[in-house]
Amino acid sequence: MTDSQTDSxxxxxxxxxxxxxAKRSWFNSLYTGDGGIDFIAKTKLWYWITGIxxxxxxxxIAIRGFSLSIDFQGGTxxxxxxxxxSTEQVEETFTDATGITPEIVQIVxxxxxxxxxxxxxxxxxxxxEKARLAIYEEYQPLNSEGQPSPDAIGNSTxxxxxxxxxxxxxxxxxxxxxxxxxxxxxxxxxxxMAIAAMAALIVDGIVIAGIYAVIGLEVxxxxxIGLLTVLTFSIYDTVVVFDKxxxxxxxxxxxRRRTYAEQANLAVNQTFMRSISTTIISALPIIALxxxxxxxxxxxxxxDLALIQLIGVVEGTFSSVFLATPLLVSLxxxxxxxxxxxxxxxxxxxxxxxxxxxxxHTNADASAAGTENDTAGVAPETPAKRTVSKPTVxxxxxxxxxxxxxx
Length: 407
Hints:
This is Protein-export membrane protein SecF. The protein is of the alpha+beta class. The chain has 15 helices and eight strands. It is elongated.
């Protein structure tokens, strides 16, 4: 028998069965918290990004304002099949016929569904008829049967009073939504969570409005409906994250494993992939709506609805993941109980927990002299303090929630 055979036979079963530990995937580490993203540590970065976006949005809203549709400000809109017409030439024809310069002349849709739209201040019936006849004589637009006809030129007029009423109702709807959402979160979760969620929701609204002001997109009733939809999506995503934070931090004062901020960061990691997946799944049908209904069919109302939803879904995910939870941690860290618990966790990790050793210790000379020290009147040495480092526990559980019986 060779030496190598002898060695293999004498190896212990545990040595023979030992295998390299499988590495945890990055996706699994997001859930367990062993190697996820430290969102809370970058709180200042998220605050800076949010602050810059808010400043830019508010400046453009104040300087440029919004491009409101006739539904809000009143006016007249005329439309006809776009064909190969030039918007500049159509605008000139309209101005010559009515003496009024249109606010905007644009082509929406694509292919056979392309439509030329003329937006202007409110026109009288006489001016509308003049514009229709002038445009028909100049361009001969075709109706649905493919025949030249003045009826191919449609028009719609909204009074200023109606636009004012729609605007007031829009504002009332937004305020009612914010109030109801705040009340729900305050009862469903915690006070600090309600404050953080509403702050993130307000940021969503301002940034989305700022994007519309920067790009000059038209604000229509469909835009407002889309805004309420995406704000609902944002608050839903935030509630999901906060619900996990609440689960992780329940009874956190009784555990020295993680601080409140670390438990909250773990919750964000555990819901991060879910938020990304939800965003992608939500964005796909919106993109499909924009391609089919807007680009191919040229339905302008659906364009307004799809665009605001696409912008809002992305912004809502950012605020839920990168803003709402850091705001919550900042609010919680101001509480005395959270400060005290954080100090205790840090002290435990640094090995500053001291235990009293009750065994009396004497110096070496006293031990060698026996009873001589007793006759010399030397008092026994007081119990000595020794520093004991708390052992580090490798916790791979998905939740750091403390319960009775856990360390």
